Amino acid sequence: MSMAIAIVTGITAALLVHQIAWYTRLRALPVAVGLGGVAALALVLASGLFVFLFIRYPASGADGAYVVQYFFIVIWAFVLLFALLIGTLQARSLPAPWWKGVMGACFEAGLGFLVVVGANYTLQFFAVQFERLFLETTGPFLERFIQFFALALVALAGLRPVVRLNRGLEGRRSGF
Per the domain annotation, does 142 fall within a domain? Predict the structure, then answer.
């Protein structure tokens, strides 16, 4: 039961984040570009802080720091791939320069990160009540939520510009 709730809430949260991001892009593109720049800068600063701490205080094999290092590598690869590919596609559907699309994609990814952090803190706050109600720990619930949230957000981020571009092509072909 709790896994079904995690799946439904993950997909619903992704729909809401995506809708907020697109509403902001369509109504106030400079705001989305500026907030995307803030999100990209925050990722760079967080990564730089971790690298500085990793160099200053090297971890032994027993520490989990190497896992976090790989985590940042995966995040950088994903964000760069997500931002460049999806952002360029989204920019073509707006129409806007490619870099504004990339910043808009960073804005959407930043909103997604905030939702995941909020879900994590909410589950930590209500962990005892959650475990009493569902008779299981919050870890699997959060993992399933994040999986479906991320998959739905990436799918929506790629699907909407394709639909907008196809709708624009159909309008041009029919003379409208």
Answer: yes
Residue from 164, 166, 151 nearest 101 by CA: 164
Residue listed under structure tokens 């720990």: 137
> Residues 104, 14, 119, CA angle at the centre, nearest 5°?
110
Q: Which amino acid is at 75?
A: I
pLDDT tens by residue, 26-80: 999 999 999 999 998 887 787 778 777 777 776 655 555 666 666 777 777 777 7
Output the CA–CA distances (angstroms, integers) from residue 107 to 9, 35, 87, 145, in the order listed.
Answer: 21, 6, 10, 20
Residue 176 lies in a domain: no
By the 10 Å C-beta count (0-12 exposed, 13-18 middle, 19+ buried), 69 is classed as middle
Contact in structure between 110 and 35 (CB atoms under 8 Å): yes
* 61 within a domain of the structure (yes/no): yes
Structurally, how many domains does the chain consist of?
Answer: 1
Residue 142 sits in which domain range?
Answer: 2-170
175, part of any domain: no
Q: What is the DSSP letter of 113?
A: H
